[in-house]
């Protein structure tokens, strides 16, 4: 029997909001050529629904003008500790009280040193010290020459800031403006956006491990050919991202796809169904029993049901006038059923990509595999697409998650899992 829609809405009404919609983000810019990336970040934050205010140091204006950030954000830019636009000329108090999070991008070595030692000699350093630490996060994205980053003084300052609950985003390794290559490059805007989403999302799954499979598998016929399917991996990667945002320790096992790993997600790449099974088994066997019992396994990957009985050692050549070669197949192991049969076992969630009779086939699969939850969809309508719709099935009945982005559906699925676990 389908669960009443109003009951579902009421059930999730108490869930805190995800992501950046309506969040108040103070974007702070210190000196560094990487400030051009912050322009892109500001636009991305606005598209994500965040409310923005911008603070710049005097030195930052040598790289990007305050007028540029004002044009991008539609908001005035704050640079002066004694700004007349703020009541009582206390910008360092009002801005910190306003923000849910402060992200400093780029963060220079000089600014890090001042923050580490509580030196307040401009608006940015003062408001960071004056912010209410219990509800306003401080995230910094360092950007500097590799020698400056690796210097013992900078590393000591970073350690002090981390001890003070500052969240470090990077730095990355790569080409630098000085022409050298090494650690010290500021993270890309998309990484910073994901990091902010991660920091500000509700932690429904804090303390839990989550193992997720995603994408297709590729079953080789010969060294250059194989059998696969149209799965893009987008749904599985979206779920991994949502689970990580919800506070879980996430291990993503991905078939052959060209997708970027979500923020804070450990990833293992595999090719075939047997590779995927071995990776899942290794991941579970590395966990203690108490960890497995508090873990979640979400089997999103579109795993091939069969594989060729033999793989040719050389490319099978087409011979003129000869009939096509025949292939014999053997059944691949059922990864989800194997995990569900373990003792102890994680909370198992399956996916069913069907072409018809979604409820009937999905519920039959859920019962056959003896799992508490299954998400079913019409596979050929969603493979490779950015939108999807799901039918969630569990022992209490079914409920529909209507057409939405895969990121939004992933969040709704994680909420449903968290609800079932409580």
Walk me through the structure.
By secondary structure, this protein is α/β, with parallel strands linked by helices. It contains 16 helices and 20 strands. The strands form 5 sheets. The chain has an 8-stranded mixed beta sheet with strand order 13-12-9-14-17-18-19-20, with helices on both faces. Strands 3-2-1-4-5-6 form a 6-stranded parallel beta sheet, sandwiched between helices. It has a two-stranded antiparallel sheet with strand order 7-8. β10 and β11 (226-227) form a beta hairpin. α4 (91-98) packs across α6, α5 crosses α8 (152-163) and α10 crosses α16 (406-421). The protein starts with a helix and ends with a helix.
Task: Present the secondary structure layout.
Blueprint: H1 5-13, E1 24-29, H2 35-47, E2 51-56, H3 66-73, E3 77-78, H4 91-98, E4 101-107, H5 109-116, H6 123-130, E5 137-142, H7 146-150, H8 152-163, E6 167-168, E7 172-175, E8 181-185, H9 189-200, E9 209-214, E10 219-220, E11 226-227, H10 234-245, E12 249-254, E13 265-269, H11 273-285, H12 289-293, E14 296-299, E15 306-308, E16 329-331, H13 335-340, E17 347-354, H14 358-369, E18 373-378, H15 379-382, E19 387-394, E20 397-405, H16 406-421
Parallel strand pairs: 1-2, 1-4, 2-3, 4-5, 5-6, 9-12, 9-14, 12-13, 14-17, 17-18
Antiparallel strand pairs: 7-8, 10-11, 15-16, 18-19, 19-20
Helix pairs in contact: 2-3, 2-9, 4-6, 5-8, 10-16
């Amino acid at each position: 029997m389908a669960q009443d829609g109003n009951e579902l809405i009421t059930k999730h009404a108490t869930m805190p909001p995800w992501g950046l919609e309506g969040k108040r983000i103070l974007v702070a810019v210190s000196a560094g050529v990487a400030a051009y990336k912050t322009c892109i970040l500001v636009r991305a934050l606005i598209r994500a629904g965040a409310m923005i205010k911008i603070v710049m140091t005097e030195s930052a204006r040598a790289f990007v003008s305050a007028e540029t950030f004002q044009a991008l954000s539609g908001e005035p830019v704050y640079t002066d500790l004694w700004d007349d636009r703020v009541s009582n000329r206390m910008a360092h108090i009002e801005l910190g009280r306003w923000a849910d999070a402060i992200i400093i991008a780029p963060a220079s070595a000089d600014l890090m040193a001042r923050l580490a030692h509580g030196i307040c000699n401009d608006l940015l350093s003062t408001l960071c010290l004056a912010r209410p630490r219990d509800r306003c996060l401080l995230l910094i994205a360092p950007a500097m020459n590799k020698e400056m980053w690796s210097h013992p003084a900078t590393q000591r300052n970073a350690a002090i800031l981390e001890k003070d609950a500052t969240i470090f985003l990077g730095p990355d390794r790569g080409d630098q403006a000085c022409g050298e290559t090494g650690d010290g490059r500021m993270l890309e805007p998309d990484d910073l956006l994901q990091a902010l989403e991660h920091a500000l999302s509700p932690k429904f799954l804090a303390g839990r491990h989550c193992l997720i499979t995603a994408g297709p598998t590729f079953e080789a016929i010969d060294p250059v050919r194989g059998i696969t399917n149209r799965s893009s991996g987008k749904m599985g990667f979206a779920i991994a991202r949502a689970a990580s945002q919800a506070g879980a320790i996430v291990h993503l096992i991905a078939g052959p796809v060209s997708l970027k790993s979500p923020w804070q997600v450990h990833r293992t790449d595999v090719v075939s169904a047997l590779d995927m099974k071995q990776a899942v088994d290794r991941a579970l066997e590395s966990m203690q029993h108490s960890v497995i019992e508090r873990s979640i396994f979400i089997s999103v990957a579109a795993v091939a049901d069969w594989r060729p009985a033999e793989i040719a050692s050389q490319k099978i050549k087409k011979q003129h006038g000869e009939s096509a070669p025949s292939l014999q197949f053997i059944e691949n192991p059922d990864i989800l059923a194997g995990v569900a049969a373990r003792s102890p076992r994680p909370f198992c969630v399956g996916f069913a990509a069907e072409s018809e009779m979604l409820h009937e086939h999905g519920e039959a699969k859920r019962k056959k595999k003896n799992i508490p939850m299954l998400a079913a969809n019409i596979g050929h309508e969603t493979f490779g697409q950015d939108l999807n719709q799901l039918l969630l099935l569990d022992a209490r009945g079914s409920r529909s998650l209507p057409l939405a982005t895969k990121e939004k559906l992933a969040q709704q699925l994680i909420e449903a899992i968290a609800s079932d676990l409580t």
